[in-house]
Amino acid sequence: MFVLRVAAMAAALAAACGLAPPAFGEEAGLTFFGWSDPHVQTGGNAGHLLPAVDAMNALAGTEYPARIGGKVATPAFVFGCGDITEWPTVAARDAYNEIVTKRLKIPAFDLVGNHDEGGEVPSATIKNWITARHGALSYTFDRGGVHFVAPFAPYNEALKNPAQPVAKEALDFIRADLAKTPKGTPVVVALHLCLDAITNRDEVAAAFGDANVILVLGGHYHKATVGEYRGYRFVQLPSPFSESEFTVVRMTSDRLVAVPFDFKAKKWSEDARKILDVQIIKRRTVDGAVGSRRPA
């Protein structure tokens, strides 16, 4: 009887905070996996992705590191932060599509990276694929009471610099979508550019307005790392092309965890620079950003 009461209380708390109630015996919240920059080669060679995909398919039920506790829940989806291809050939597109629609046993969402645009020889191949899969180049979706915003941000090749401003087109989409998102809804924003690559950080933060943005995902620089700007938490997702990790994100009613898993060594990262483990506090800072702190 006590266990049932505790489960009911957890479900009520999760519902109040906008997160999905747990199945019996599971922790309330949402789990998903993240990667970026898979760089499928122009000829369609995507073999380097297979160990990562197979590990994703098998990870549910794996024990987290003791400091985090619990087991990995069944993931709701895998999110990719762009650069699907080295360059956007039909062969590269088809190889990636085969992997995420057949070999991967988890729903997948993706956005366009700078390589996917074709550089100085623009191509619509990946743009059209994203549009066909998700309904638009810039799109949103909801899972477990969390609102996800995935805008298309055109890359400016003329700058000749991997560090760039997030394009106005993307900021306008974020601003317009968050303006109509119910207040207090937990929000995750996904970009191709990571925190270290964004040169207009204040504009990005301003675009969030008073929305409850609890996490910003990015890629581009290939390595897993975490950061913070004006109170917003940023998680840079690793590349299975350059690294041997993907990131596991777990959200509960009051805690946000992101920790990379090494799919070749089959172990969790112990590098503090790559791990996010914070409490979500229902308050806002003076500049409007979400307040959070690390668990004691």
Tell me about this structure.
This protein is α/β, with parallel strands linked by helices and 296 residues long. The chain has seven helices and 14 strands. The protein has a single domain (2-293), classed as Purple Acid Phosphatase, chain A, domain 2. The protein has helices at residues 2-16, 50-58, 90-103, 114-117, 125-134, 168-179, 201-207; strands at 30-35, 78-80, 108-110, 139-143, 146-150, 186-190, 212-218, 225-229, 232-236, 245-251, 255-262, 267-268, 276-284, 290-293. Strands 1, 2, 3, 10, 11, 12, 13 and 14 form an eight-stranded mixed beta sheet that branches. The longest helix is centred in the N-terminal third of the chain and has 15 residues, at 2-16.
Record the SSE blueprint:
Elements: H1 2-16, E1 30-35, H2 50-58, E2 78-80, H3 90-103, E3 108-110, H4 114-117, H5 125-134, E4 139-143, E5 146-150, H6 168-179, E6 186-190, H7 201-207, E7 212-218, E8 225-229, E9 232-236, E10 245-251, E11 255-262, E12 267-268, E13 276-284, E14 290-293
Parallel strand pairs: 1-2, 2-3, 5-6, 6-7, 7-9
Antiparallel strand pairs: 1-10, 4-5, 8-9, 10-11, 11-12, 11-13, 13-14
